[in-house]
Amino acid sequence: MKSSRNILLSLLVLSMICFLVPGRVQAEMSLSISGMELGKVNENGFFPVTRIYKGSPADRAGIREGDLIAELDHADISVMEAQEVDRTLSSRLGSGESSVLTLLTPHGKNLAWLKPLDLTLEQQNAMDFYQVLSMYSQTADSQWKDLVDLFQECVMGRVGMVEAESDFSALGQALNQSRLDIAGISLPSGVPADVLVLCSDVKHQHVATQMKRYGAKGKMLDYAQARWGDGSFLDSRWEKAQKAKTSAEEEKRKAEFYSNRLLRYLEYPGEDLVALMEDL
Questions:
Q1: pLDDT at residue 10, rounded to an integer
Q2: Which of 36, 79, 142, 274 has the largest count of CB atoms under 10 Å?
Q3: Topology (CATH level 3) of domain 2-114
Q4: What average pLDDT score do residues 254-263 get?
Q5: Going by CATH, does the domain composed of 121-279 fall within 1.20.120?
Q6: Over the stretch 177-199, which tens digit does the pLDDT of each residue have?
Q7: Do residues 143 and 188 make contact, with C-beta atoms less than 8 angstroms apart?
């Protein structure tokens, strides 16, 4: 009976993922019940771990980005594709079974035991929501890092005006698209009212982060353009750019605070959510 329930839960999770993730993104990266993403097999027949979702079976097993998967349940996987490995893991975890992965880490060879999360359907819906949000958020974080790095290059005078203006424009469009992607994520269904409010707060804060970042992009470009021009009010433009950058980074810290609240709910479902939120 428990096995049948777990299989049903697995199918519901996969259908929720397909519904939440737009086709364009789903073709590029898909979520896994294991909570990790794998790159293409390397020349030695090992699969690099490219992403880990916090709170997932992979995270709880101690697997980290950059680790190499050499074996699945002590069997050779060098002839498999990454999607095939993921499907095998998802099938086992979804049916309530565990899997042992042989890892090559910076600290040597290691075994990781992936165990299925003992989540209710409501918790799983919230976890699905969080993982989709996390996927888009990590993409946006990478875009923000590229923007800050570009600004630094402009400050140091290492890039030309035409190149920098084009890159600023492209990164601004990417940040705005990430904002739209996050805003388009559906809130989880079938969860308690307080959890739904929390999920809404998490989503809103991540959208606000992207808006602040987009605004900071304009201030950074304004300063860079002034450096290339007559330099009028350069000090004030520098101050505005720095203030906007700091404000965007503070907004991201708030988003992480709200995200941690949601993860605490998933990790400690038996405790009072309000009390957990006050502890953070």
A1: 42
A2: 36
A3: Pdz3 Domain (2.30.42)
A4: 84
A5: yes
A6: 999 999 999 999 988 888 899 99
A7: no
